[in-house]
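Bumping with the actual sequence this time:
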Amino acid sequence: MPASSTLAESPLGEQTVIGGFEYRYYSEICGGSFVRTVWIRQYDPADVLLEAFDRVERKLPAPTPLMIWPDPDFDWAYAQVPIDFRAEPGDWQAFEATATASTPVQTVSVTVRAEPAELVFVSGDPQGVSPGASCSGDGPVAGYDPLVPGACHYTYVNASSTAQNGKSFPATIGISWDIDYWSTTDPSYSGSLPAITRETVFPMEVAEVKILGVNRPAG
């Protein structure tokens, strides 16, 4: 359409549906004279929501296991000793994506935001007291105090020698994101979508510490 042209919607509000999409009838006017008639597709925010959701979903990372070991020199975990688990700051963050549809008479835009809500650790030990633990807020990226287990911690009761492979438990760490969306071109359009979780499975070796008691003779 030439830059000097304008589009005027049909006063009769004529419309049709082609391929499941609504089209409206417009007249192209140039210099006050009729040029031609055109059908132009009409968009609403729901038409671009899926594209925005797909874009943000592709951004969400599988979390990098970040374990705080009681024995940092050898990266060992011990049965009956709490271990802290964390998320890398680059993983534990919000992600956004926007999708837009434009025509000569309309622009529709939707933004989807994924906000990290929960960090989940699954021990992989079927004989454990609990299957795992979870935390939220500052816990996933909080500092580590070796004397006080953090909000994100788990205690194995069994050494990984009891695992099926006799060496390591198939542990899992995952991040769950809450998903919200809104449209800047239609303030009435907003809402939430089902949460998305990304997981990483990794081998977890847990050693057993044996304490030898010695009876000393009296006297």
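The tokens above came from a reply further down the thread. The two ends are 107 Å apart (CA to CA).
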